[in-house]
Amino acid sequence: MNSPPLEGARTMLDTAKAPDAHRAAREFVAQAGRDAAFQLESCVHCGQCADACHFHLVTGDPRYTPIYKLRPMLKAYQREAAPFASVKKLLGLVPPEVTAEELREWSELLYDSCNLCGRCTLVCPMGIDIAGLVRLAREGMAAGGFAPSDLYKAAEKALETGSPIGVRWPALKRQIELQEQETGLHVPVDAEGAEYMVVLTSIEIMGFPESIGALARIFRQAGASWTIPSAGFEATNVGVQMGSRDVAAALLSRIVGAAERLKVKTVISPECGHAYSALRWEGPNLLGRRYAFEVVQISELLDRFVREGRLRLRGKDARRLTFHDPCQLVRRGGLTEAPRRLAGGVSANLVDMPGSGAANFCCGGGGGVSAIHRAEGLRFAAFEIKKQQIEATGAEALVTACGNCRNVLEEAIEHYGMTLPVLGLTEMVAQYLETETPAA
Questions:
Q1: Is 295 helix (H, G, I), strand (E, B) or coil?
Q2: Among 153, 152, 156, 130, which residue's Cα sits nearest to residue 141?
């Protein structure tokens, strides 16, 4: 049975198949509420956001100045909703209407060259949340039919199968079975009343399935009940990435439905930055109601378990390691210390990158960029900044707490001919757990 969020999402995607600049402009104006309008009016054109953006830094192209990317939304707002807009329109003092040609050009700026990483927000002297405004501007682009085709296809696939790349339950079930054989531990599925429900991303399921075995070992030592749902297990939210509240809400409703069906106390967001921001921060607003459960990111939970003595670590990786801060977890989500404490707990030689923590540079693939094929060249170019950060540490391996970052980093490292393993934080914690007596 179709739920209202699902119906709204499908309607949006069907409508977007016929690009319409007027529809996009109406959505720009609708998204320019009080707070957004105040921020759009506040820019003093100082240019500091340009020096914070890796796309601008590596190309020197002024079009990649973060605040410039908002020009179509600003024009629509100034024309229709700004103070005295109606009077100015009569006097011919408003900007011209946003055109389809302009929006096609701006699609690259709002999608390919923005990771929604928020580094520009961090440095803005006027306190403008530029990344947040780009997120709102994408609502207009997606509704008008001007988002990248790759993201529309991913959204359709996610609505149809539950996954943006078509990973269904049988594929996850097989990976679970393989990890059970590997670890000798049971992975609970659809366990009603479990304390924790773990959701995963397609990247983890197909690219890093060992994370499932790592979770089994971790929850076993912590003595915590947990489960994976057979429906609503996908945490990736392409709706947030493309800019569609309808799609985002439809995908979130599946996770929330699974949590409520299984009556769990806590939903664990996986090693995925945008999955975390969508589920933890945007979710209740998108669905229009509070959750009946807590949302915790996996590194946040593991740090809690270690500090409570429920996870006991023994031994450390002797290599020189450095930690990549996922933007949506650290800068946008505030989880600066927990993942770094965990990394330090399993590393004998952890070295921070220059500008680490909240000021760190994005991997280049966040905000849906890694799913946009036409953006690949620009993404690899932007990685030059991250490459310089990594090389400055002399690290022998890289650790991160986001599966998408891990995948993007591995691709870019291969592209540049570097030799550098990229490690998942959850798996490292599981690797250095105190040895237990095998289950009978």
A1: strand
A2: 152
Distance CA 62, CA 60 (A): 6
Which of 236, 281, 286, 235 lies closest to 259 in space, CA to CA? 235
Interval 98-125: pLDDT, tens = 999 999 999 999 999 999 999 999 999 9
Instruction: Say how far apart CA 407 and CA 363 lie, in whole Å.
Output: 10
Residue 400 phi/psi, 5° resolution? Answer: -150, 165
> If you search the block for the tokens 């960029």, which residue do you land on?
369
Give every CB contact of residue 350 below 8 A, 6+ residues apart in sequence.
321, 322, 323, 340, 343, 344
In three-state form (DSSP H/G/I as H, E/B as E, the rest C), the secondary structure along 365-410 is CCCCHHHCHHHHHHHHHHHHHHHHHHHHHCCCEEEECCHHHHHHHH
Residue 87 amino acid letter = V
Q: What is the 3-state secondary structure (H, E, C) of 101-150?
A: HHHHHHHHHHHHCCCCCCHHHHHCCCCCCHHHHHHHHHHHHHHHCCCCHH
**Block residue for tokens 């998408």:** 404
For the chain, percent of residues with pLDDT exceeding 70 = 98
Angstrom CA distances, 69 to 26, 50, 280, 374, stand at 18, 11, 27, 18
Q: Answer whether residue 233 shows pLDDT above 50.
A: yes
Please give the Cα distance from 23 to 259 (Å, whole number): 36
What confidence tens digit (pLDDT) does each residue in 13-43 have? 999 999 999 999 999 999 999 999 999 999 9
In whole angstroms, what is the distance from residue 359 CA to residue 250 CA?
33
